[in-house]
Amino acid sequence: MPLSRHEPRPDSADPAALFTSYLDYYRWAVDRKLRSLSDADLRASRLPSGWSPLELLIHLVHMEQRWFRWGFLAEQVDRPWGDNVGQDPHGPWTVPDDVDLAELLEALHTGGTATSAVLAVHDLEERAALGGRFTKDPPTLAWICFHVLQEYARHAGHLDIAVELADGETGE
User: Fold this and answer.
1) Predicted confidence (pLDDT) per residue in 72-91, tens digit
2) In this structure, is residue 85 part of a structural domain?
3) How many domains does one find in the chain?
4) How many Å from the N-terminal Cα to the C-terminal Cα in the chain?
């Protein structure tokens, strides 16, 4: 029984196909939730921690890039910590005033396409390349997939709370 009417049910036991399906599922869940909010609600926080839904989205965009492109592939990426004030990995999330929901959702789904391409051609047992995010002891692609999947699931749950506080909607 799916968790929601949107949950994937791939007819596969292939772990890479399952990761691809569930990462896509969470990206689209985040997309649906964010599109339900007004621009004012996208940029405002109703939470003690202070993050806004748009800040959470920019975090997801950069997080996936950090793990798959910069991390696993060791590609040089522009501003890997661009979601954080001053590019401080521990700083608060920030969204430039001239960046909007459409731009960030496009970046989210473009990043998802890049991740799917990685999963289509690399074995899950393969270790990340050195030279990007990692200089020693790189994790396997499977570990990276689990980490990114839990980030999406965790933050989609956070977003559920923010959306409910903004407009009373609960959902999948």
Assistant:
1) 999 999 889 989 888 888 88
2) yes
3) 1
4) 14
